[in-house]
Amino acid sequence: MMRLSETALSRLPADVERPAYDRKAAKRGVVHLGIGAFHRAHQAVYFDRALDSGDLRWATTGVSLRSAAVRDRLQPQDGLYGVVVRDGDAEQTRIVGAVREVLVATEDPAAVIAAMADRDTHLVTLTITEKGYKLDRAAGGLLSDDADVAADLAALDAPRTAIGFIVAALAQRRARNLPPFTAMSCDNLPHNGALLRAAVIAMARAHDGDLAEWIADEGAFPASMVDRIVPATTEADIAAHAAQLGVEDRAMVKTEPFTQWVIEDRFAGERPDFAALGVQLTDAVGPWEDAKLRLLNGAHSAIAYLGGLAGDTFVHEFVGRPEGRAFVEKLWNEAEPTLSPPEELDVAQYRRDLMARFSNPALQHRTHQIAMDGSQKLPQRLIATLADRREATQPIDALALAVAAWMRWQAGQTDSGERFAVEDPIADRLASADGVDALLAAIGVTLDPGARSAIGAWLTTLERDGAAGAVRTIVS
Ligand code: CS2
């Protein structure tokens, strides 16, 4: 079968949306670090719409920090790929043209720095996942015992971390009298803008105090909240997509209709007309971020561990059971009072929409995918909520069960005895941590004795009755 490419575009079925602009005339204005499925289904679609609107400054250079897999899929396709939006039985495909090229940082770090230091590059966006920031959550600052951080602190000719690349490129821009680009984290971390800024300034300071000061004064690190559910693409998805398109697209992504991007209105220079693209610009991203992390992501992680232990392959299976839905509602009842939601956010409606999004059977969002990297996710998704409730002397039943399920997950075995590998950057440390206190300590968390014993009690129930039993108990 023919591969998707510029020349194959004319063969696609008429109802497949495609770039309406002249791709060759588009200039690169964005470098994106971490070009995984999420970027392709989210930010790249916004930049594609900006190009479609006639503003040709926003083509993207994607960067893979480690693997060549995405480059090897996109390059033979001239950077083109399909975003397949699935909603129950309905499906709509858009071919995105915003990605001009993909660079693999380990192969050619100088090319990555050059792209970022180019005068036409105004935005550097990041989806490098929580662990990519290399932050020591317990002690604060950069991870001092990380080999890549140590290498970048010593020299930046061939950076290994995203933070190192940003500093190296900003140094070049400063040397050439160019303004800094705007660096925008699009990862699910609270205060992601401030975190990125602090990490970049700390790395810069290790090399050049004046550079660090220039970045602090002139740089811009807006916080942003991104939301779209993008499950990993499977071979079956690629085959179904090929049958529909009549050409093969090995870089496709599948997603839901919903998409949201809230950005702190703080830029160092040019930007697309974000408001016209449906992006919300605001002074305060924090309240949006908290609502999303604590309601969407908190429930996601709880579903991943409880559902995964009970044998659910997909999220929609868990919320397809009345007790699964009741559990999620209970978790939200606990989380909601800890929020100070933005005025524009109708939380009751948001919860109804979330439940509908989780229930979308066509997404096939795997519990094991969400379960990954729990040590990086738990603190902001569940632990902070739990700590806030303890502080306010409010009960923590569902939150405690969710945290206990994460702990039970570390044994690497479902309730029916099926073994699986725990995927986490500190998997070894978690495997050897025994009991509630040791597991909390491993992720840099301290909780009061009452909270710890509530978690411990649910851990005992999970061991005795399994996740399905524990969920039945908590909602009865
Ligand atoms: C999920 C998120 O994998 C996960 O941890 O909770 O990727 C989630 O799908 C997105 O944040 C939705 O915007």
Question: What ions, cofactors and ligands are bound?
Answer: D-mannonic acid
Nearest-angstrom radius of gyration?
22 Å
Shape: globular
> What is the tally of beta strands?
11
Looking at the overall shape, the CATH architecture of the largest domain is 3-Layer(aba) Sandwich
- What is the CATH fold-level name of the largest domain? Rossmann fold
The share of residues in helices is 40-55%
What separation lies between the terminal Cα atoms?
54 Å
The CATH superfamily of the largest domain turns out to be: NAD(P)-binding Rossmann-like Domain
Largest sheet: 5 strands, parallel
Strand content: 5-15%
- By secondary-structure content and strand pairing, the structural class works out as alpha/beta
Q: pLDDT average, as an integer?
A: 97
Protein name: Mannitol dehydrogenase family protein
GO molecular function: oxidoreductase activity, acting on the CH-OH group of donors, NAD or NADP as acceptor
Pfam families: Mannitol_dh, Mannitol_dh_C
InterPro entries: 6-PGluconate_DH-like_C_sf, 6PGD_dom2, Mannitol_DH, Mannitol_DH/Oxidoreductase, Mannitol_DH_C, Mannitol_DH_N, NAD(P)-bd_dom_sf
What does this structure look like?
Helix 4 crosses helix 6 and helix 10 crosses helix 16. The chain has helices at 37-41, 43-52, 69-74, 109-117, 147-154, 162-175, 192-207, 209-218, 235-245, 286-310, 315-319, 322-335, 347-359, 367-371, 374-391, 397-409, 427-432, 435-442, 449-475; strands spanning 28-33, 59-64, 81-87, 90-96, 99-104, 123-126, 182-185, 224-227, 253-255, 260-264, 280-282. The strands form three sheets. Strands 5-2-1-6-7 form a five-stranded parallel β-sheet, sandwiched between helices. A three-stranded mixed β-sheet has the order 4-3-9. It has a three-stranded mixed β-sheet with strand order 8-10-11, with helices on one face. The chain has two domains: 9-282, Rossmann fold (3-Layer(aba) Sandwich), CATH 3.40.50; 286-475, N-(1-d-carboxylethyl)-l-norvaline Dehydrogenase, domain 2 (Orthogonal Bundle). The protein has 19 helices and eleven strands. The mean pLDDT is 97. The radius of gyration is 22 Å and the shape is globular. The protein is α/β, with parallel strands linked by helices and 476 residues long. Bound molecules: D-mannonic acid. D-mannonic acid binds at residues 188, 227-229, 296-297, 300, 369-370, 377.
